[in-house]
């Protein structure tokens, strides 16, 4: 569906390095990365709104590299809706159709039903809630029957209730066969909506793969920390045992190759017990208990190593953990990721 080959963008203060990327027809594809990574520029390049410096863009087998936006059959929805304030919901939805020789009534009525906008058609954007504005923006984007829907953080400005509502609309559109490429900062959104994900960092594509794989097996420390692998530390390993820089020892796993490396472990993969459990467990001091929505982060100290474990409140109550107490931690061997040492931007 989307085939980017050697696509690059050179701007005075930013460079999107040449990248290759393919998105399949009917796929729900996610694009993530820190602020300023180049995500919006990439979407705008695909939509034809951002000039590129090199490479080609093919959509559905057609080379669209030099086509104007209105001939690409692509729609782009932004976080801030970009609705026209002086037009009603109905006029906003119909707006794009003027460039496409008018629309088909049944299609527009279908969208109005799908996105539950019927009772809002005569209202102006300023009188709508965030969720209603985003539903209007989606209807306007879909009115022109795009082959591809690009979404630039469409849920970021919405409160959780509206976010869930728009997520379910997006799932429904995907179920109808639409191809979606969505930018988000939120890895929870990636897990709940996406099939594959690309991680972009400082203009460089770091990893592309199934959501589960990028989440569980990030290719380097930068991707690891971006996907929530909060525990990153260096150790020299010998026979499955790691020696930290302060000399403390940690039993990792017999499968871990010898040598110095950067290690990553997700906070939910740090197991805590009141008593030592097997020889792989090590004693930590509880530094803080931080509520994070439905879970708690337990900040732990083991020598100079700071670790974060994550658990549900019920487990925290079972353990009756308090600040400054001692607790025994261990890592699930299968959850240990090993990255090359010496990466820039990692601890
Ligand atoms: N027209 C432009 N001219 C020069 N630099 C630009 C232009 N547009 C964007 N940039 C710069 O390019 C970089 C990437 O911008 P982009 O908006 O794609 O980031 P992003 O990954 O979408 O970030 P965020 O998540 O914060 O929206 C930024 O440093 C931005 O300042």
> What is the radius of gyration?
24 Å
Instruction: Please provide the count of β strands.
Output: 20
- Order of SSEs: EEEHEEEHHHEHEHEEHHEEEEEEEEHEE
- Main beta-sheet strand count, sense and barrel state: 6 strands, mixed
Q: Within the largest sheet, what's the order of strands?
A: 6-7-8-3-9-10
Number of DSSP helices?
9
Mean pLDDT: 91
Shape: elongated
Tell me roughly what share of residues is in helical segments: 10-25%
Query: Unreliable runs, pLDDT <50, ≥5 residues?
Result: none
Which percent band covers the strand fraction? 25-35%
Bound compounds, each kind once, are: adenosine-5'-triphosphate
Q: Compute the separation of the termini in Å.
A: 39 Å
* Class from secondary-structure proportions: alpha+beta
Pfam family, one: TOBE_2
Domain ABC transporter: 2-227
Keywords: ATP-binding, Nucleotide-binding, Transport
InterPro entries: AAA+_ATPase (IPR003593), ABC_SmlMolc_Importer (IPR050093), ABC_transporter-like_ATP-bd (IPR003439), Mo/tungstate-bd_C_term_dom (IPR008995), P-loop_NTPase (IPR027417), Transp-assoc_OB_typ2 (IPR013611)
Written description of the protein model:
- With 347 residues, this protein is of the alpha+beta class.
- It is built from nine helices and 20 strands.
- Adenosine-5'-triphosphate binds next to helix 1.
- Adenosine-5'-triphosphate is lined by residues 11-14, 33, 35-41.
């Amino acid at each position: 569906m989307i085939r980017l080959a050697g696509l690059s963008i050179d701007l005075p203060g930013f460079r999107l390095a040449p990248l290759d990327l393919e998105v399949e027809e009917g796929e729900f594809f996610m694009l993530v990365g820190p602020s300023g990574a180049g995500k919006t520029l990439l979407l705008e390049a695909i939509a034809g709104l951002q000039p590129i410096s090199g490479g080609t863009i093919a959509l559905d087998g057609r080379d669209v590299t030099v086509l104007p936006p209105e001939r690409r059959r692509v729609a782009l929805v932004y976080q801030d809706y970009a609705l026209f304030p002086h037009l009603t919901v109905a006029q906003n939805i119909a707006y794009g159709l003027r460039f496409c020789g008018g629309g088909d009534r049944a299609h527009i009525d279908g969208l109005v039903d799908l996105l539950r906008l019927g009772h809002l058609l005569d209202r102006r954007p300023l009188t709508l809630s965030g969720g209603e504005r985003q539903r209007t923006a989606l209807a306007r984007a879909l009115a022109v029957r795009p082959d591809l829907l690009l979404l630039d953080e469409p849920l970021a400005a919405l409160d959780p209730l509206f976010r869930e509502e728009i997520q379910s609309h997006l799932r429904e559109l995907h179920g109808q066969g639409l191809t979606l490429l969505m930018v988000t900062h939120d890895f929870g959104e990636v897990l709940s909506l996406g099939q594959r994900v690309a991680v972009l960092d400082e203009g460089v594509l770091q990893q592309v793969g199934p959501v589960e794989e990028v989440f569980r097996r990030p290719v380097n420390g930068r991707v690891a920390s971006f996907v929530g692998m909060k525990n990153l530390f260096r150790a020299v390993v010998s026979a499955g045992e790691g020696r930290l820089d302060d000399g403390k020892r940690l039993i990792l796993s017999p499968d871990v190759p010898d040598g110095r490396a950067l290690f990553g472990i997700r906070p939910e993969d740090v197991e805590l017990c009141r008593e030592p459990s097997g020889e792989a467990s090590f004693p930590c001091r509880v530094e803080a208990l931080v509520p994070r929505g439905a879970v708690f982060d337990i900040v732990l100290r083991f020598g100079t190593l700071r670790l974060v474990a994550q658990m549900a409140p019920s487990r925290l109550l079972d353990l009756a953990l308090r600040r400054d107490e001692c607790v025994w931690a261990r890592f699930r061997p299968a959850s240990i990721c090993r990255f090359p040492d010496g990466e820039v931007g990692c601890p």
